[in-house]
Design brief:
302 residues; 4-stranded antiparallel sheet; Methylamine Dehydrogenase, Chain H; globular; antibiotic resistance; 52% strand; mainly beta; WD40/YVTN_repeat-like_dom_sf; EC 4.2.99.-; single chain
């Protein structure tokens, strides 16, 4: 069945231009939660535009990626202070240091085991933290891989990008790691998200491509019309379409399961789109480093 869509893009100011909205996720309370990497704050915006924010300590902790947890709270990485943070929907904040010094935690996602899993870019490890703060770390078999984003797969494992190894990794709940090298050298994958049929979608910021890997390890790559677009983060909507930010091209992109690619320009030049999420309102939301959130809404006819 064909589907036609008309999209509109709206920008909503959430901070000053120097705060750096970066990661974004849909919370369990029907709001969008986002990080402000340069100001050390966690923001919350309802689809209706109600805005609140919460200061972290220290302000230089560098909150990056944020995700909903199995305990009804939001969990986030503190890239500069090498900790994992937690904030409840009523604003109570906690923080947990990591065993590895200067670990550089970046990506984070809920696992199927009731824990949060995260990447340690500098330490070359995958971490797991329980809801009561117990941390386990798993070393990767490739040195200098710079693991970046992470997401739960339909197979119960966690899948992650290995930015400097040009590979996709899979880690089971027992800590066993499988590495899938990408066909393209210099691909430098970053964002990753679960798609339909057990597939995982990811972006290749270095090659200007969107990738897809199946549960059997088969990899498909889709070159973007603008190979210099620097795709950064991905999210999958209820139709199975993969949405992604084009950091270098000031656009939001979409790719369908059959490989059709569309792009939607953002109103403000050089807005630096980073994190992306499908909101509770069905719209696609992106965090713009210039101090705003972008909302893409669609009128769809089946």
């Amino acid at each position: 069945m064909s589907r036609s869509s008309t999209f509109s893009v709206e920008e909503l100011q959430v901070s000053g231009r120097d705060a750096g909205p970066y990661g974004i996720t849909a919370g369990p309370d029907g709001a969008l939660w986002f990080t402000m990497v340069h100001h050390g704050r966690i923001g919350r915006m309802t689809p209706g535009g109600e805005l609140t924010s919460h200061q972290l300590d220290p302000a230089s902790c560098g909150p990056t990626v944020i995700a909903s947890g199995p305990d009804g709270a939001l969990w986030f990485t503190e890239y500069q202070s090498h900790r994992i943070g937690r904030i409840t929907t009523d604003g109570r904040i906690g923080s947990y240091p990591l065993p590895s010094p200067d670990a550089g935690p970046f990506g984070i996602a809920a696992g199927t085991d009731g824990a949060m899993w995260f990447t340690e870019t500098n330490a070359g490890r995958i971490g797991r933290i329980t809801t009561d703060g117990a941390v386990t770390e798993f070393p990767l078999p490739v040195s200098g891989a710079f693991p970046s984003a992470i997401a739960a797969g339909a197979d119960g494992a966690m899948w992650f990008t290995m930015n400097q190894a040009d590979a996709i990794g899979r880690i089971g709940m027992d800590g066993g790691v499988t590495v899938h090298p990408l066909p393209t050298a210099g691909a430098a994958p970053v964002g990753i998200a679960a798609g339909a049929g057990g597939t995982m979608w990811f972006v290749e910021i270095g090659a200007g491509q969107i990738g897809r890997i199946g549960p059997d390890g088969r990899i498909d790559e889709f070159p973007l019309p603008d190979r210099g677009a620097r795709p950064h983060a991905v999210a999958v909507d209820r139709h199975g379409d993969c949405w992604f930010t084009e950091w270098g091209a000031n656009r939001i992109g979409r790719i369908t399961a059959d490989g059709r690619i569309d792009g939607y320009d953002l109103p403000t030049p050089a807005s630096e789109p980073h994190g992306i999420a499908v909101g509770p309102d069905g719209a696609v939301w992106a965090a713009l480093e210039i101090g705003a959130l972008a909302r893409l809404t669609a009128s769809v006819t089946d």
